[in-house]
């Protein structure tokens, strides 16, 4: 898939707006992202099919569009549906409940994924 196609898909996802808001907060408060201390990749799906990835780099305190940059590896990859991610980011859904229902999948260090609650709690105040 071309870079242009990937950009088009990401623009169609609701998660893009949530990541844009998270990124705004990260750019003004990088310590908030650094508290995570790990690289976490989000694979966003729609109707069960992979659509796009975003990365939260807690080591550098940045959030960016796409998979982890070359030379870095995600310690955790979270796969979640577009709608469920937005509900999670807004504080309307609970990650544990989504996980229990099989709507959120975690590959890697689950304990690191729990550190995201700080970032999402801040986001849900918006």
From TrEMBL:
Residues 19-121 form the SCP2 domain. One of its GO terms (cellular component) is cytosol. This is SCP2 domain-containing protein. It comes from Rotaria magnacalcarata.
């Amino acid at each position: 898939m071309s870079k242009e196609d990937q950009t088009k898909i990401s623009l169609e996802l609701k998660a893009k707006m949530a990541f844009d808001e998270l990124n705004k907060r990260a750019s003004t408060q990088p310590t908030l992202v650094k508290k995570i201390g790990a690289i976490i990749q989000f694979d966003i799906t729609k109707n069960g099919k992979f659509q796009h990835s975003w990365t939260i780099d807690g080591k550098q305190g940045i959030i960016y569009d796409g998979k982890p940059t070359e030379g870095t590896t995600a310690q955790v990859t979270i796969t979640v549906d577009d709608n469920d991610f937005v509900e999670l980011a807004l504080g309307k859904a609970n990650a544990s409940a989504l996980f229990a229902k099989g709507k959120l999948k975690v590959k890697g260090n689950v304990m690191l994924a729990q550190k995201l609650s700080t970032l999402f709690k801040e986001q849900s105040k918006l």
